[in-house]
Amino acid sequence: MRCQSVIKHLANYQQGLLADRMHSQIQAHLKACRNCQKERDKFVEITTFMQHLPQTPAPDQFAAKIKKRLGKRNAGLHWRWPAAYAAAVGVCGCFLLLTMQPFRSPHRIQPELMVAEKRQMAKESVADQGPRAGNAVFLTLRPKPVLMAPGIAGPEPAAPLLQTDGFSESQPGRAKFKSAPRAETNADTFQTAVKSRAHEVEDSAAFHDFQSDLQTIIQAVGGSIEPIDSHTLVVTMPAAAYMTFLNKIQVVATIAATSSARPEPAARQWALEIHLN
Amino acid sequence: MSRQSEMPDDWIQRARDGDMAALDMLVRCYQDRIYQLCYWFMKDAAEADDMAQETFMRAFKAMARFRGDAALSTWLYRIGVNTCKNRLNALTYRIRKYFTHSLDAGDAPDLSATGNPASELIDKERHILLHRAIAQLPTDKKQMIILRDIQGLAYDEIARIADIKIGTVKSRLARARQALYLILRDDW
């Protein structure tokens, strides 16, 4: 057997993949040929070098970078209740409308219960600059007609960009979650934490698009959405950015009470719908 | 090349449920293996970092679909391999590759274990030679070398990752090692 042929089949020979006859021929040649022995040894050395390479560790802060990316992407991978985002935005809108009089527009909705909520908050707090820790509000999603001005019904709202299961005109979707405003909220920053215990909504491409758009818009106004865990979301934005935010997202907030008697804060329910421009 | 441990099953379930602590643990448990995989697939350390991050992000996205019929590491390797292959096959990447260098001496990891500077220098140079040689291999051969000889995976695991038969793994590996040897033969 010639050296060229031995070298050509070195790998198969070393791995025992050759037929017995050829294996024996190469073996015999290697015993006699110093040059081919050197080539065989080099082949083995290369393979052994690879197999004994020290572990190449991940860079420092690799896990932290992943965590940051997860936060930036809104962790929508495991945030299964799209209406909770809508409600988070709605909560922002509701509380800011309650607390920031200069931003109120006569063309926006003036839901009765938002006024009632503000009265309640005014009673409970001297510096009523925003939501306070300890308030718990249960929200229910239910589409309602839009009022463009007091007492005047406006055009039917455009079809939502995203409709979740059960979230339709004929069968409004329902979801319950708590909004627990944070103690550190001040006049310059609005922040609220939203916890969801809603039933799962089937993941979809439209939902991811919705999350992505919402995240982009909130970040464009200098705000952030940070998932704390799979059921808790913190929405933060500068209070002054709220009007800019409204220009980008048409927020339709409709409020409905669950009973005529004003319920306790823990039992109040709100309706919310969001359209993206 | 010892096999490393897997994340406990209850933590895997929590990760599937989207628990952030479990996802964080998943990254910490597998980051070295996935990064090393990407390091040997890609042109340089920065690209390896990108691909490793992308691998985990894709894994998180698909986490709910992980059925547990294979080890989590196998599943992650598969995502990592596909992520790297997609990047390598991208036209823009292929064009860029012709005009840029691969691993430089500064990128090679610290191989100082012998305490012998001369030996360490040779090892470092060989590391760079090896990285450049592997970069020249076609993707299917590259995959075999990385998974078997560098990552130390068993044939059956490689077969699951690559979705081929064990016999095919062995024959491809032999061809890969042969090709690598021919590239390195004169410089080794």
Which helices and strands occur, and which strands form pairs?
The complex is a heterodimer of chains A (about 280) and B (about 190).
Chain A: H1 3-8, H2 10-14, H3 20-32, H4 34-51, H5 62-72, H6 82-99, H7 112-124, E1 137-138, E2 147-149, E3 152-153, E4 177-181, E5 189-196, H8 205-220, E6 224-229, E7 232-238, H9 242-248, E8 249-252, E9 273-276
Antiparallel strand pairs in A: 1-4, 2-3, 4-5, 5-7, 6-7, 8-9
Chain B: H1 9-16, H2 20-41, H3 45-62, H4 72-89, H5 91-97, H6 117-136, H7 139-150, H8 155-162, H9 166-184
Helix pairs in contact in B: 1-2, 2-3, 2-4, 3-4, 4-8, 7-9, 8-9
Explain the overall architecture.
- The complex is a heterodimer of chains A (about 280) and B (about 190).
- By secondary structure, chain A is of the alpha+beta class.
- Helix content of chain A is about 40%, strand content about 15%.
- Chain A is built from 9 helices and 9 strands.
- Chain A has helices at about 5-10, 10-15, 20-30, 35-50, 60-70, 80-100, 110-125, 205-220, 240-250; strands spanning about 135-140, 145-150, 150-155, 175-180, 190-195, 225-230, 230-240, 250, 275.
- The relative contact order of chain A is 0.16.
- Mean pLDDT of chain A is about 55; it is low at about 75-85, about 100-190, about 190-210 and about 250-275.
- The longest helix of chain B has 22 residues, at about 20-40.
- Chain B has helices at about 10-15, 20-40, 45-60, 70-90, 90-95, 115-135, 140-150, 155-160, 165-185.
- In chain B, about 70% of the residues lie in helices and about 0% in strands.
- The radius of gyration of chain B is 17 Å and the shape is globular.
- With about 190 residues, chain B is mainly α.
- Chain B contains 9 helices and no strands.
- In chain B, about 40% of the residues are buried.
- Chain B has a domain at about 1-100: Rna Polymerase Sigma Factor, Chain: A (Orthogonal Bundle), CATH 1.10.1740.
- At the A-B interface, helix 2, helix 4, helix 5 and strand 6 of A face helix 2, helix 3, helix 6, helix 7 and helix 9 of B.
